[in-house]
Task: structure prediction
Amino acid sequence: MPTAQDILANKPAVATIAEEATVMDAAKIMSDRHIGSLVVVRGDTIVGIFTERDVLNRVVARHRDPMEVIIKDVMSTPVAYCRPTTKLAECRGVMTRKRIRHLPVVKDNKLLGMVSSGDILAMEHGEQQKTIEYMYEYLYEGTR
Result:
């Protein structure tokens, strides 16, 4: 069964932002990197997560100025996270129960990366394709 570490092996470093940054700063980073969330930090400590959903619901829908709004005032807390050894099925379950799409991966209080629901879907799809190919070969190639 694949784990969070299996996904991190193929991903770039996770993007972070200081809690005192503005929403506009966060939006620029997310846009430039084509990502949907940032881990919010105070020094080396994870204090929240800021997502596209936060921009929409806590800034845009409330007519707040992204140049003035500070991340710590609109970030999501507390942060659900997993460990590198957490099975993807468990990660998926946490995401479903908490209705979130991003899960930071932490080991020894150090941020290692981020697993998204899209990452899990892609990994599971790849595993299913391998199983289908194996079963096809077993059923049809073995009879020739």
Remarks:
- Residues 24 and 66 are 5 Å apart (CA to CA).
- The longest helix spans residues 117-140.
- The chain has one domain: 4-143.
- The first strand starts at residue 16 and ends at 18.
